[in-house]
Specification:
This protein is α/β, with parallel strands linked by helices and 127 residues long. The protein is built from 6 helices and 4 strands, in the order E-H-H-E-H-E-H-E-H-H. It is globular, with a radius of gyration of 15 Å.
């Protein structure tokens, strides 16, 4: 059975040490024996690419706090996938959207087909 470890540094550590602490947490998850490491997206491609490169196990991203727009969710996923993440583990940002089915389909396009958010035709209720 695969082991997924959710590696989330505390807010206090993030404030003190910045995104580097997320890289260390991901690496620790791998060294503790995770088959897959779940992390928060760092907020930018450069730091997330470093995290993925430093983690010897596949990385998935958490959804984090509720996003203001669906576009923000999709862009976060697009960025994470471009950096080498293998997928996502989102909850509230899907369930709390205006159309969870349409958002899931759009996420599938980004994750499995490499679609760019700017190219997606999203239903009006998601915009």
């Amino acid at each position: 059975m695969p082991l997924l470890l959710m590696m989330y540094p505390t807010d206090e550590l993030l404030e003190q040490k910045g995104n580097d602490v997320q890289l260390l947490a991901a690496r620790a998850g791998a060294e503790l024996g995770a088959d897959i490491v779940k992390v928060s997206y760092t907020g930018d491609r450069a730091s997330f690419k470093n995290l993925v490169a430093a983690c010897p196990r596949p990385v998935v991203i958490a959804g984090g706090p509720h996003k203001e727009t669906v576009r923000e969710v999709l862009e976060m996923v697009e960025d994470a996938m471009a950096c080498g993440a293998i997928g996502i583990a989102l909850g509230r940002n899907i369930w709390q959207s205006a159309n969870p089915t349409a958002l899931t389909a759009a996420l599938g396009e980004v994750i499995h087909k490499g679609a760019r958010v700017s190219e997606l035709e999203l239903p009006a209720e998601l915009l």
